[in-house]
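wait is this the right file?? whatever heres the structure
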């Protein structure tokens, strides 16, 4: 168990310098039932809930107190034996051997903003942390170079949903290979500091590119795009019955709208004729609500 806690120190260390400093800039609808807890679906997010098998508490839960849709993610700081364990939600993967939590997901783009909504219950002046870091592995140093970061410390009670709208600050023009997104109910987790009962609730988390082009990190619907890359057409398949017409929009990463239309069945074939080689974002909306996003590539 000591090995797990020493590993968590490294996991939290990046939060330490921001635990008391205010720093300037979606909905968790789908969850998967594990043995004695739930995790956000899609294999993008992970938490410390899997420590439940070692006697740890469940610190991330699905709640109906959402900003929009049906659910949001609630992170709560709890006690585990003699240790304080913050609620932690990370883009990454939990593994059963050291280092236990592998942070980061493959990512090669350059968004301009990190956005979403949160509420915070601070116990005894505790603080929470919200951040996204874009990185690239340095083959010479063997370490990860920071390409860009967007970060905020939440320093006081925030009883109603409040937007965070964080600009990415870029330090390099290199193409990244990974993104880390972290929410922590107690920002002092680097040294297991925090207050039992501090609770951070998050919803509608997304990345913004140019001219209002968004990529949802917490989609409300699950869909696939095939083939990807493509040269002539894509098939969009939604993993649920389509009970009402939806709209789709295809954007380039610099914010130009190339195509839009409707989706009224489970699988829709869409021509990509006229799109130049490059990456695009496919967004599905219900009215003004972004339900899901996926990137695809055109290779002419």
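ok assuming it is, sequence goes like this
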């Amino acid at each position: 168990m000591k090995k797990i806690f020493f590993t968590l120190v490294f996991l939290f260390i990046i939060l330490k310098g921001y635990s008391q400093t205010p720093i300037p800039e979606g909905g968790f609808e789908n969850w998967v039932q594990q043995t004695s807890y739930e995790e956000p679906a899609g294999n993008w997010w992970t938490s410390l809930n899997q420590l439940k098998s070692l006697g740890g508490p469940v610190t991330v839960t699905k709640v109906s107190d959402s900003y929009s849709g049906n659910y949001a993610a609630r992170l709560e700081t709890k006690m585990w034996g003699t240790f304080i364990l913050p609620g932690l939600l990370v883009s990454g993967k939990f593994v059963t051997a050291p280092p236990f939590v592998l942070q980061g997901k493959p990512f090669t783009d350059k968004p301009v903003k990190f956005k979403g909504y949160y509420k915070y219950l601070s116990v005894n002046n505790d603080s929470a942390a919200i951040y996204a870091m874009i990185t690239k592995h340095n083959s010479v140093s063997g370490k990860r170079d920071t390409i860009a970061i967007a970060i905020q410390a939440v320093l006081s009670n925030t009883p109603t949903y409040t937007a965070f709208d964080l600009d990415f600050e870029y330090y390099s023009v290199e193409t990244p290979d990974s993104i880390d997104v972290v929410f922590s109910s107690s920002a002092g987790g680097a040294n297991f500091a925090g207050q039992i009962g501090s609770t951070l609730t998050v919803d509608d988390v997304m990345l913004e590119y140019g001219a209002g082009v968004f990529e949802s990190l917490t989609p409300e619907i699950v869909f696939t795009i095939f083939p990807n890359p493509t040269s002539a057409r894509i098939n969009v398949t939604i993993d649920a019955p389509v009970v009402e017409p939806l709209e789709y929009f295809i954007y380039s990463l610099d914010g130009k709208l190339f195509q839009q239309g409707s989706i009224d069945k489970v699988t829709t074939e869409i021509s990509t004729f006229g799109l130049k080689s490059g990456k695009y974002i496919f967004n599905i909306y219900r009215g003004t609500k972004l339900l899901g996003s996926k990137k695809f590539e055109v290779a002419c």
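The radius of gyration is 20 Å. so i think its the right one actually
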